[in-house]
Every structure is written in C-alpha cells, then in structure tokens.
Amino acid sequence: xxxxxxxTPKQIFKTWWPLAVSWFLMALELPALSAIVARLPDPKxxxxxxxxIVFPLALIIEAPIxxxxxxxxxxxxxxxxxxxxxxxMHTTSAVLTGLHILVxxxxxxxxxxxxxxxxxxxxxxxxxxxxxxxxxxxxxxxxRRFNQGVLIRLGHSTIxxxxxxxxxxxxxIVLVIGYQIGTIPGIVVATTAVAVGVMGEAVYIGIxxxxxxxxxxxxxxxxxxxLSKKVFLRYYIxxxxxxLITLLSQPLVSSALSRMPRALDSLAIWPVISxxxxxxxxxxxxxxxxxxxxxxxxxxxxxxxxxALLLVSLTTGLLLLITVTPLSTIWFKYISALxxxxxxxxxxxxxxxxxxxxxxxIQSWYQGIILHSGKTRGIPExxxxxLVVTIITYIIGIYLISLPGLYIGVLGFSLGMVSxxxxxxxxxxxxxxxxxxxxxxxAEL
Length: 445
Prior knowledge:
Blueprint: H1 9-27, H2 29-37, H3 43-62, H4 68-75, H5 79-105, H6 108-116, H7 124-133, H8 137-153, H9 157-181, H10 186-217, H11 229-247, H12 249-258, H13 263-285, H14 287-294, H15 301-324, H16 327-335, H17 340-351, H18 356-373, H19 378-399, H20 405-444
Helix pairs in contact: 1-9, 1-13, 1-14, 2-9, 2-10, 2-13, 3-7, 3-10, 3-12, 3-13, 4-5, 4-8, 5-8, 7-10, 8-9, 8-10, 9-10, 11-19, 12-19, 12-20, 13-15, 13-17, 13-18, 14-18, 15-18, 16-17, 17-20, 18-20, 19-20
C-alpha cells in the first residue's frame, strides 16, 4: 500500500481551491436560472420545460464533445496535434449542431418528448422554443473546452476560472434584463442566458488562447510519432462513450418523473433541487483533477485520502444542516421563488439526496486514481452501473410505489451515485498497485 503521510493538506488545498471555485461558479448558473424563471409568468410550466426537456436534450446532443477538455489537455503536445484535434472539434460540432436543428425542426422532436420522455403536453411547445434558442450551445461548448485543455496543459489554468466568471456574468446580465422586463416567457429568458453565457465564455477563451498558441504551442518540437487519427480515436471514443452514458441520466430522470404521480410538480422542482445539489457536488467534482495531479508525488496517498474524506464530511454535513433547518425553506421560497404549493415537496426530497455530495467526492478520489493509471475501463463500467441502479429504482417507483415522482427521482439518483462510487473503489485496486509498482521502479532507478 501507499498509506504514508507526506504531501501536506496545504499543498492539496492550493491545488484544489482554484478548480473548486471554477466548478462552484458553474454550479451557480442553474440556481440563478431557476430563481429568475420562478419569478416570471407561468413558473411551473417554464421550469418544467427547461429542466424536463431543454437541458437534458441539450446535454445529450453535446455529449460526444464534452470530453474534449481531457483530450486536448492530454494530446495537444505540438502544433500539428492541435490542428488535428481542432479539425475533429469543428467537424463533430457541425454534425451535432445539424442534429440539434434536425431534432427541433422535424417530427423527431415530438417522438422524443412525447413517446420516449413522455413529457406533459403543456411543456412541449415552450421547450421546443427553448431548444431553438440553444442551437449555438454545442459548438460553443466544444470550442471552449478544446481550448481550455491547451491552456491547462501550458500552465494557464487560472484563465479557465476567469472564463467561468465571464460566463456567469453574461448569464446574470441576461437574467436581470429578462426579470426587469417581466413579460418575456421564462423559458426564453433562461435559454437566452445560457446561450449568451457559453458564447461569451467561448469568445473569451478564444482571445486568451491565441497568444499562448503563438508563444508556447507553435514553438514546441514536433512529437514522434505524430498523433494519428487512429491513436486519437482510440483515446477519445471511450471518453465520449462515458460522457454519453452519463448524460443519458438526464432525459432518463425526465422520462421517469413524467410517468409518476405529481409529474408536472416534480419536473418543475427538479432543476431547482438539482441546482442546489450541484453546488454541494461541485467541490467534490473538482477533486478529480487534484488526485490526478498529485497522486504520483512521494507519500501522497494518505493525505489525499484524508482530504477526500474531509470533503465528504463537509458537503454532507452542510447539506444535512440545510435539510433539518428552515434554511431549506428559505432557499426554495425566497431564493428559488418556488410556488408555495411546491415547497413542502422540495423540502422532503432533500432527505433522499443526503448521500449525493459525499458520493461525488468519493467518485473523484477513486476516478483520479484510475485515470492516473491509464487503465480507464473501470470508469465507463461504473457509469453503466449508475444507470442500471437508477433505472431499476425508477421502474420500481413507476410500477410498485405511489410516492411523488420527485422523491423516487432523487432517491434513484442517490443510489446510483453510491453504487458508482462503490464500483470505482473496487476497480481502483489494480490502479493503486500499478501506481505503487511504478513508484518502486522509479525509486530503484
């Protein structure tokens, strides 16, 4: 084992906090959207349209390009490699944008939302309008993540955090304008804010990456052998499949909630409660890159593990504090502005979510170990297990239990997250042995 002390908590914190801040800022986006939409006309319908159709479908469409950050960080080693990955990014983005347009402009849309998701009728047309506004989403995300990878690789990760701040600022400007006007449908305000935010961040990252490319990337010596299409796809396809499987949970939740009691209420609350949970999850998600960066340092295992457990305790404890005190009502009523008829439902649902933030931190801990080993098959396996457990829970909720769909939705997500963390722990054992063997070999040399 590598269970020795050495790497200090201060060093871990120094690596972790900039990434945590960036993820935290991203986590604020959904609560901000929900808070404004809840204060505009027809809040229940517009919240349900965004959380039940627009956001899940937009995520599914962008899934093949979401891992460009990891690919670019790992593979943009010279100018030729950068250009090849950039060509892949633009080609894939064009295809996915075409798919987005095809979905919203043909009967495919009604087949997906009516037959597959089973959405309530009153949210179908508002969601279609929202998806139309979101057309620039995928290409902007791809361009931004691709160039963020280059910035991280060449030592400019602080720019990534600043880009997140630009995105959130653009979101808030649009949201405030929409709120002040007061008559624009909430789904239009929300999707316009998201689209403007991602485009603004993409422009900012594009401006900042140019001098880095000119002064640092282009002068780098060409790698031998050069990056081939076969090598790139062998690396990227498993990552893309992992993100696609993960994001399938979004429409899966919407489909399940639509088939259980209090469907419209559950769909309306889902983006609100998801946004709150993502705030607590964000600091644990950020820990993945910390482990990946620091696990190879001498005597790092013990303190990295302790820091992961600290994140579990802090996030779980804070969520429990909100759940058992009036803070949850304050959040749902005064910040998120949920209709009073939905607040009790949201408060109760929080009890089913208490394991989620801690499970996320544990996942990042074990996933970082697995990624560092280079033997990554356990990661998509864990995601499949998450989906299987979630689906089983939802099937039981639909056919055997008459509880409100929101409760089953949160419970299924929670059980899936815990199962995913457990599988990652199991699969990390070989990865730890590989890390230890590599360390011992280096010590002998």
